[in-house]
Amino acid sequence: MFSSGPGLAIDPTWVLGSCKGILIGRELKVEHEKSSRVNNVRETIQRCAMVVLELVAQIPLPLMLFGVASLLYVLYLFSSTPGCAKCPPGPRPLPLLGNLLHLDLTRFNICTHELSKKYGSVFTVHLGPKKVVIVTGYKAVKQVLLSPSEFQEKDMLVIFREMFHGQGVLFANGKSWKAMKHFCLGSLRNFGMGKAAGEEVIIKECNHFIEVLEKFKGEPFDVELLDASVSNIICTILFGDRFDDADPTLREMLAYLKQTIDLISSAEIQLHSVFPWLSWCGGLLLRNRSEALKNYRFCTEKMKVLVGQFKDTFSPQDCRGIVDDFLLQQLKESDQPSSYFSNGNLLGIIRDMFVAGTETTYISLVWGLILMAKYPDIQDRVQEELSQVIGHREPRLKDQKNLPYTNAVIHEIQRFGSPISMITRTTSFDVTFQGYLIEKGTKTLLSLESVLRDEDEWETPHSFNPGHFLDEKGCFTRRDALLNFSVGHRACPGESLAKMELFLFFTFLLQRFRFSPPPGVSQDALDLNPVACFIKKPSTHRLCARTSA
Ligand code: HEM
């Protein structure tokens, strides 16, 4: 995915830094050695690369930049407009670099918005030599998502293929994905979603987080503290029990998850996805890639230990959670050589549920608290409604229908602060879409952000406005264009669970606390611009939570 990641723009300081690193003789590391023949070829390429880089490094920088710019300009002038007449339109690409120099990928959503104004809701850009079709706006994106067969497969960053090998759900395709998605939906229903037991698990975590916040006595706290409580919900559903907040396994997994998301957002990894052959230069040029792969291997080892403990204590009569449910299925299909219930898929399911079930919900909640601190009038109205309808007792899911304003605010938080701004697909065959030809295997980026900010669907798309979800009588009203969980065959299987979590956490916290910016920071100064990242995260990190009167 190329969401609002900080981009493919090549930072010259980074390139020079890497060259310098090479010249001072950093040791060559060649990853994933498969055969000595391949190694020899790689080593030769690396040696050649070093020689070339040494030569290039001797050229004065201004001269080198002038040379590269002139070469690209000449190539641009002599290149014919690529693509076919029937393909979606788009800016004219440079040879090799495509539109990388036109696109500010640290503001990819804004770029996409601007390009869609010029070229329409379906257009082509070239990320390096790779042609990518971008689809924007509610109508076009929904049409792709609900297409029966045209855009079936998910397209993935190269690093995800290297890490996950098509196991699990999130980064899988084909028959294995289908079997695992079916399992996830069924097992989530059994152990979490739409059940009283699921509600109890969430309420336990809400009360736990309230205790954590009370210890700050109104002093500023780091919103990242929320991640352990949110994560413990999916951990309980997976493993049958929560981790202590300070448990080293939980802390390490959360830290590695955050670090890996930042690494994957880096220019290096985005660049690698455009030019996969860069990995032939080993760990030298792609240190973030090596670091992300190392993190992933570390987490996989941790998960293997956990799974081992589960296998040792597994009893088919007493399923503790999704992991046991998987082991039971594995046992039932043990005589079927083609079964998808493999150990690899078990690790994949745990990883996907942990990642998707933690980061997205936690970020949505953080957006919610920041928005309440920024707009105290809206916070007042929510607290007034909670006090009238619920009073001092604990909120419950059944209260939702009696809290129209609070419900509208929670839905608007999901629209305004949706963590996933882009999803990817690829065409399974040549497709005619909205009159354009999209050739087989074309990477297709669907901008969910453009749906959630579609000017034809939302009255004030760029402002936080709970009125989007209220009718003229003040009753809560659903909006079809709220596609933050996606739709169609790849839609989020955790949608119901996430909605339960958002409602309960939000009402528990707002009933108990008044959220405000830290001392010295005004409401106006609270920054609503997301940090450029693979996942759309807010940049503010500290807030105050004072006990409500
Ligand atoms: C506010 C919270 C959440 C949001 C906004 C969200 C959103 C999404 C989106 C947009 C997708 C991609 C769908 C696509 O490619 O079309 C997705 C996939 C997925 N989500 Fe969520 N999600 C959330 C919470 C959760 C939770 C709590 C879980 C786990 C229980 C979860 C598990 C998954 C999985 C396993 C997939 C992959 C589905 C597939 O590829 O078929 N998500 N989610």
From TrEMBL:
One of its GO terms (biological process) is organic acid metabolic process. Its cofactor is heme. PROSITE patterns: CYTOCHROME_P450. Its main location: membrane. The keyword Manganese does not apply. InterPro entries: Cyt_P450, Cyt_P450_CS, Cyt_P450_E_grp-I, Cyt_P450_sf, Cytochrome_P450_fam2. Heme binds at residue 492. SUPFAM superfamilies: Cytochrome P450. It is found in: Membrane. GO terms for molecular function: heme binding; iron ion binding; oxidoreductase activity, acting on paired donors, with incorporation or reduction of molecular oxygen, reduced flavin or flavoprotein as one donor, and incorporation of one atom of oxygen. It holds the Pfam family p450. Keywords: Heme, Iron, Membrane, Metal-binding, Monooxygenase, Oxidoreductase. GO terms for cellular component: cytoplasm; membrane. Belongs to the cytochrome P450 family. PANTHER family: CYTOCHROME P450 508A4-RELATED, CYTOCHROME P450, FAMILY 2, SUBFAMILY AC, POLYPEPTIDE 1. This is Uncharacterized protein. It comes from Anguilla anguilla.
